[in-house]
Specification:
This protein has about 160 residues and is an alpha/beta fold. The chain has helices at about 15-20, 30-35, 45-50, 70-75, 90-100, 105-110, 145-150, 155-160, and strands spanning about 1-10, 55, 80-85, 100-105, 115-120, 125-130, 135.
Length: about 160
Amino acid sequence: MKCAGKAVKYGDNVDTDVIIPARYLNTSDPKELASHCMEDIDKSFHSKISDGDIMVGGENFGCGSSREHAPIAIKESGISLVIAKSFARIFYRNAINIGLAIVECPEAAQAISEGDTVEADLDAGIITDVTTGQGFKTEPFPEFIQNIISAGGLVNAAKAGIIG
């Protein structure tokens, strides 16, 4: 799986209530969730992203609640990949379950700046900051996770018989 886009960057401890504020959790409509993604931390989020862009975070990205609304809002916003120094474990698994590519790479998360052009080959485990020319190595996804993300999430993968 390959991703490429402009980086939008956030700091440490970005919690799920900032990613999608609780006041919008009365809907499960992905488009409605996406329309409110990051609005409490970054009012300009939607005006500065395009489909395929890459979100970069610091330590403990996605901390907070265990609801899937947060990764759904990010994915439906058009973000193709989230790179962070570290993720809250349940956010990490929820992201994979809904088909959002997510990678822990502290070096890349530290070095990539807001607005940089970033490319990632997740099968090879390579992240490149095209703007600076820096490359970073990360663990490639195991095949079963590649299959889940490629299928658009766990439910789709199961329906297609990709996973048991």
